[in-house]
Every structure is written in C-alpha cells, then in structure tokens.
C-alpha cells in the first residue's frame, strides 16, 4: 500500500507524462477489448443453455431433390423419423425454422423475427422462463390447434416495456391471434448466432407463421434445422454410426417419392446420402462464417497496436527512470533492496496500466458501436452487445496486467541494477547518458517501426482490395436505382390478392414523380438470399452425377430494363406474362453455357419446383450474367420467371429507376404505400448504391479499421522516435556545441542526427518487410484482385513509414543545429 500511495503521488506530479502514457495504453487496450467483445460473442462463447457441449446439429449430405431452404436443413417427416428412432442416441431432438412475421399488438403492427419450434425445444435446451411458462410437447400435438407464443426477453423489454401483464394477452401473428404464455430467460436470443429471435411459436402453427407455403408432410422440402442433445458418453462419431442404419431406412422413403422422370436418382440417393452429426455448442451462424477470418485479422492487428503502445510507454518509463537514478540510489543506500525498487517501479506501471484499462473500456464501447455500424443486418444491434460483461472485464484486466509486465519489467529491472557509488558520484545531467538505456530505447523504436510497417502494409492491402471490389461492375446499373421490400403475405394476402397488390404497387410506383422505370423481384439483388431448385430440361439427359440445381428468381415486367441488365437474345417479361398465360422463363449466359453449350436455347423448355412435367416453361430470352449475392462471387446459373405467374407469392423487392437522386422519392413512396394498404409495412428502403456498399460490409470493416490501426501505430512510432531523438540530442548537447564551436556547419549537424534516424528506420523497415511478406500469405483469402506481396502496396507503405520516421527525427535534428556553442559549453 505504501508503494501504491507513493506511485499515485509520483504520477500526479508528472501529469503530461502520465496523460500520454495512459492515453497510449487506453487506445491499445480499448481496441483489443472491442475486437474481443465481438469475437467472444461470434467465435468463442458457448450458447447460454444447459450443457451446451452436448448439443449437435444434424446435416444431410449428398444428392438433393425438390426444395432446399437454407443450410443444413431437413424435411419435417425426416425429423420425425429420426426423432422417434434415436432415443438410444439423444436425450432429445428438436427442430426450428426462422422467418419474418407481421406482429400486431393494440393496433400497431411491425415486422418481427419468429421461430417455429418443436414442443420439446426449450426443455431439451434447458432454457428457463423469466415470466410465465415456455412451450411444451402438449403445445405441439395438432395442426393449427395451439395458438400460443413465447416472447424473447430482450424483445419483451424493448417492445412491451417489460410489462408483466403481457401474459395471456393476444398478439396478431400475420393476422392470426396468439396468446402470450411466457417470456424466456435473459440472454437467450435463439440458436443462430448473429440473429435475434423475437417470438417463438409451436411448429404445429407453421401455416399461420408461413402463410404462403406449408410443407409439414413434404419429404422433398428441406426447411428445418435439427439439433440434438447427446446422451452422456455419446460422441459425434458414435452418434453418426448409430444413426446410419435408421437414416438409410428413411432415405428409402425419400427415394420412393422421386417423380418418374428422376427415378434414375434413386441409386445415388441410396448410396451417397449420409447424415452428419456436427458439434453445435456455439450455435450455427452464417455471420460467423463470413466474419471469422476478418475478426482474427483484426485481433492480430490490435495486438500489434498494443505492443507498439507498450513500447512507447516503456520508452517513456526508461527516460523517466534515467532521471530518477539519484533518487533510486539514495533509496538503496538507505536500505531498500533491489526487489523493493523494482516493485515500486512495477507498481507505477500497474497504476498506469489500470488507468489505461479503465479508459480503454470506454474506448472499447465506442469502437464496438463503430464495428456494429458496419453490419448491415437489422438485428445486429439486438444480436450483439458492446456493453462489457464479466468475460470482457476479465479480458480487459488480463490484458492490462500483461501490458504492465510488457512495458514495465525491463525499465524496472534496469533502473534497480545501477551501482550506488557510481550514481551518487555522477551528476544528474550525465546519468541519462547510459549506453544501455540508449540502446534499449533505440531498440524499442526499431521494433515500433517494424510493427507499424506490418500494419501499414496490411491496411494498404485491404484498402486496395476494397477499391478493386468497388470498381467491379455487378452486371447492372446501380446509379439512380431505389429499392424497398414488402411482404403482403404477412398481412393475410393470399395468392390472388398478393399478385394483385404487387401489380397495383408497380402501377403506383410508375406514377411516382421522378420515376422512369419500375419492376420487382422475389429475391433481392446483392444480398445472400437465394432460392435454389432442381430443374428438368426438355430433351436434355443429365450426365451421371450432374448437378441439376440452379438459382431461381421471380421477377416483374421490364425487370432487366429497370435494373440495366443487357438482353443477349429474345425478350424480357411484360404484363402479359401473368397467371393463365403460357409459362415462360429467361436464363442467363452461365445457365445457357452450362446446359446448351453453343446451341440456341430460345424455344427450349425447362421446369423447376413441383409437377415438372405439367409446368414446363418456354425459354424466351437470354440475359448477361450479373452479380446477385456479392461482388466476389462468380455468376450463378440463373432462371428468371414472371412474378405475376408465382404460385406462392410471399414478398417482393421493388426497384425504381429514377431521374433524380433516389432517396428524394422516399417520402412519396411511403405515402403511396400507405394509401395502398397501411397494414403492409415498407422495409429496407435504400438506394442500390447503399445496398452494394452494405454487401461489402466485411471488406469495409477490415479496410477501415486496419487503416485506423495502421495510422495509430504509425503515430505512436513517430512519437517514440521523436522522443528518443530528442533525448539523444539533449544528452549530446555538449558534444554538438563543441562541434559547432570548431566550425561544424548547420547542415552537418542535421546530417549527424538524421544518420541515426535513418539507421533506426532502415533497420526497422529491413526487419518489417520480410515479416510482412511472411505474414501476408495468411491474408490471401481476404484479398481481391491482387497478390499478398503486391509491389505497389509494399512500396507505398515502406515510403510512408520512411517519410514519417524522417519527419519525426528532423525536428530534434533542427533543434540540434540551432545549439548555441556558448550555452552548450556551460550546459554541465
């Protein structure tokens, strides 16, 4: 406690030194804490359920026929078959499906995220109620017979103000009354990491939750994610082996449902289909797949920033310890041991680090909010939290303690090692001329330059990669293109009414001032949404094991003219292509090349979905390839069909080609949609340029933060270099004065100092470049359109680092050249 009190008094007497040290550490520790906060929630944290290490997910692998809705999905009949035959493997098997619903309460309707779940869902996971009760198997008996709902805790807080009287109240889910029976425990947002579920309803109420399609009995519609809790002692490998005989029996039932024209797939079904059992204690996450590598890259970068900050503070402490050698020598002469001296200095380091860690928590919250601002998903702020919890606080404390050791240990040991007699005989002005201290400080600056160069090269690579992606043409014209989405099916619209509503919306938008062209699509452009179907092509015999799955989008009249996709052959859709008219489709060049080679596809026929023999469509056009999911992806094989011929219309995304700035039409669009139907909310209204930018959120996140961290590291390195050279000039004042007195020119003095600067910068760059070349290989998967060892990036980063280093050293050099020899000779 004496050491702590003395450390506080000593640091309070040097507010400038203390402020610079604390701020440097706060930036380094705060950046690390912010990245860890998101990394912990995305990559490291287990699900907030009972014994998450025993949770696995089932994954059907092999050939598929019919409809697949999402990754690792299974049909409901397959789920039932596995559930009933696997009691020797699992303590429970559950299934869930997530989608958007229109949730109404007391006259106000908004879009919410719902999950239809099996009745044993909460019991198997071990999730407890905060209020009321949760779903049970009794709520999962009869189709349409259990209109009950459970609210997620965070949604209950946000939407209903934590009103405990919400129990037994009636909500409207897609216009159907549901009674609220409970609220989940705090922190449980669903199994999907990166997505926040608002309401849970029984799977027997699926028809009300997904009004445009009902596939409870369809073996060829895979839409459910299935999870199980393994019995104690059961491993994933054992479970997979134990389930294999049962799964083969169920696959035979699937094979029996194949249509006559695809009976050739039966041998492949029976031979190649397997059931994977995969550990899922952290929950599935499509967001994790896209963010894992960038988060590790950012964590490495902020780790380097912290090392540079520690080197800076170590430099400051070394210089400060040099000025305190007489004090330390007197302490030793009065009986203090070297350990007590080192402990005192380490205590000061710990105080600095603790203060930096506390301030770093504020920095981490700000940085975390910045991170989430890059994520385009609406539920991201609800799915992730930037507020520090116990795990984050523990990380912050640990990294603060580690930083204190890194920057405080060597200066403390060095200061405690000086001989008492030499110190007491030496004047304070010469104490700082210790060769060992000078070498240590210069070595720290060299390390800072090397690490800063690493960060600058990384920032340059990510910036150039983002620039290359932004320069990619997506295959359509993004300028002056407005987009918004509606889901009339969630407001009770059946097929005929929904199609009519889409058509009336197209006409209303066409009459909006400033609008030139209008169309719509079922699958929005530049999102990760996809609808995939197996197809049948008239007169085409699939090759052995050939993949006949393609992407399908239902689009409105004049879609290609509206979004600016060139038509290669044939025509696009018109208002005449509607229900009752001949079924038609348009394909893209990738599709034409894959199945028709150099032949003419116009007039050929194909089908997708159910009843392929009765629903053959004539190919009436071929269009240029376009990017549909993101700018990195290669063009997909695409079939486009008329939206007005859609069997089960669910939602549509509208595209308006405007004569003016797109957002200028937003008010008029909302007003017209209110007049059409106020109960159909308008979602995701934005310009297409914004949509394309949001599709690059990972690249923008990494490029922006790496640039920030690179500049911060360079600034810290420049400050460190300036401090060392200013210190070096100060201790050589007498020598410089003698040189000037003997006739040395001003330019010669500057060269003398700048040679030292150039030597340190040269060594730092010489060490940093090979390290950068070695580490850049790990960045290849994150780059686009350039090599990891890109010469231009290396050259620009090296030149930048050299200029910054020389600029930081020039100020002390200029000051040295202005030394008055008379003053210098009187210096000591």
Protein model, in words:
The structure is a single chain. The protein has 26 helices and 23 strands. A 6-stranded mixed beta barrel has the order 3-4-9-6-8-7. A hairpin with a 2-residue loop joins strand 7 (170-173) and strand 8. The longest helix is centred in the middle third of the chain and has 37 residues, at 286-322. It is elongated, with a radius of gyration of 34 Å. The model is unreliable at 427-433 (pLDDT under 50).
Secondary structure elements and their pairing?
Elements: H1 2-12, H2 15-44, E1 55-61, E2 67-68, H3 76-85, E3 90-105, E4 108-117, H4 121-125, E5 129-132, E6 148-151, H5 153-160, E7 170-173, E8 176-184, E9 199-202, H6 206-209, E10 221-222, E11 225-230, H7 236-255, H8 266-272, E12 274-279, H9 286-322, H10 325-333, H11 338-374, H12 380-383, H13 390-415, H14 420-425, H15 428-431, H16 435-470, E13 481-486, H17 495-510, E14 515-521, E15 532-537, E16 549-555, H18 559-563, E17 567-570, E18 584-588, H19 589-596, E19 605-608, E20 617-623, E21 638-642, E22 652-658, H20 666-676, E23 683-687, H21 688-695, H22 697-731, H23 733-741, H24 746-776, H25 791-817, H26 821-825
Parallel strand pairs: 2-10, 4-9, 6-8, 16-21, 18-20
Antiparallel strand pairs: 1-11, 1-12, 2-15, 3-4, 3-7, 3-11, 5-8, 6-9, 7-8, 13-22, 13-23, 14-22, 15-16, 15-19, 17-20, 18-21, 19-20
Helix pairs in contact: 1-11, 2-9, 2-11, 2-13, 3-7, 9-13, 9-16, 9-22, 11-13, 16-22, 16-24, 16-25, 17-20, 22-25, 24-25
